[in-house]
Write a structure and sequence with these properties.
single chain, alpha+beta, Alpha-D-Glucose-1,6-Bisphosphate, Chain A, domain 4, five-stranded antiparallel sheet, 3 helices
């Protein structure tokens, strides 16, 4: 009986650890996010840079061009927890100026902050 209990508990623990980071909780403007402006580029160029940069480092779980929302996560490994990242692209009131918001909440002590990686990757893609 005890052996079955340990196996069942181990399987439940493994399933819980394999669960994805809660990307659906990422929302634009929730605080703890970093913003930057992209100037003199089209929405299509900004969007493609956001998707390309996220794809290099993360697994995209939601990509909606119309709403400007990209939600992604890392995969859990021995040295890293599964981490959620949100990228939000919005037009401003000025022509060819877009605000990009990156949300990378720390979910564990050793969590990475993906903000600089995403921003620097997008700026490189956009020659900014």
């Amino acid at each position: 009986m005890a052996k079955g209990y340990l196996i069942g508990s181990s399987l439940r623990l493994a399933a819980a650890l394999a669960d994805r980071a809660p990307t659906d909780s990422l929302r634009p403007g929730d605080g703890g996010t970093t913003f930057f402006e992209v100037r003199d580029k089209s929405y299509d160029q900004v969007w493609k840079a956001a998707v390309a940069t996220a794809s290099k480092n993360l697994q995209i779980v939601e990509s909606n061009r119309e709403t400007g929302i990209i939600r992604a996560h890392t995969t859990m490994s021995f040295s890293r927890w599964d981490e959620a990242v949100g990228i939000f692209v919005r037009p401003t009131s000025r022509a060819n100026v877009y605000t990009v918001e990156v949300e990378s909440p720390k979910t564990a002590l050793l969590s990475s902050d993906w903000t600089n990686t995403i921003i620097s990757g997008m700026k490189a893609d956009l020659d900014q």
